[in-house]
Amino acid sequence: MGQGHGHGQALSASGRHVGRLAMAFAVTAAFMVLELTVAVTTSSLALLSDGAHMVTDVIGVGLALAAILAARRSRQKAGRTFGLYRAEVLAALANAVLLFGVAAYVLYEAIHRISDPTEVPGLTVSLVAVAGLLANVVAFLLLRAGAKESLNLRGAYLEVLADLVGSVGVLVSGLVTLLFGWRYADLIIGVAIGLFVLPRTWTLARRSLRILFQHAPEGVDVDALTTALCALRGVGEVHDVHVWTLTSGMEVASAHLTVLPGADQGEVLAAARKLLAREYQIDHATLQVETGEAAGGCHELQW
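The line above is the sequence of Cation transporter; the predicted structure tokens follow.
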């Protein structure tokens, strides 16, 4: 059975940048609190939308940091044979639900304000937007090096990069309000940021639900995988095939391989593991090699 070497290497690469990751988390978290506080006190929809997006950054960077720290501790404890990796998926789903809620609230408020837009202090919004840009640039620079080595850090890096767009939008709304006094600027930019976040939020929710429902990873054709295993020398039949994702970057598989008479079971197992790792990037596979007589009970299962 494979030991998940690819994921271990990714976490090792992340570990070299844990200090930078912690600093990026502190910067984004501090600004998130500032932006949401000002959004509430000024009734700015643009700041509220961008603040909700900043929550995604904080959770993304926080999950990356948590994954590194968890990897430094024992991965398996009694009753937790897969550790706490699914906590990342649950947090991502909760994050998606939160963003959907904020987007719905922003759209609701925009509809109610359209006839009489709330007057928003342009100078305050502009200053917070500049602070947001600086915070995102700092986090961007801190994560850039690690993003080249680790998928774990790359996800957090891309979240921060995307939020730069939101900060620019807030700055535009603040400057337009400050210079021209156009009260619709905050409303329009707030809705635009909310709509910009929605597709990514939907993708996040869909991927989280696929993992929680233990669907096959996107891009993995289970029928083709089964056919490839059947084509290995010495394999007569393959059944009870399951492929799922434990958490982002950790694909897992299990299967029963019925070998032909006279086949070397060790060679069959080694070839199957090599195939899954090379062709499907599945490093953790539980493969049961059995003779035709031993496989009879497997077909009695109805799931």
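Note on the example: The CA atoms of residues 32 and 54 lie 6 Å apart. Residues 1-15 have pLDDT under 50 and may be disordered.
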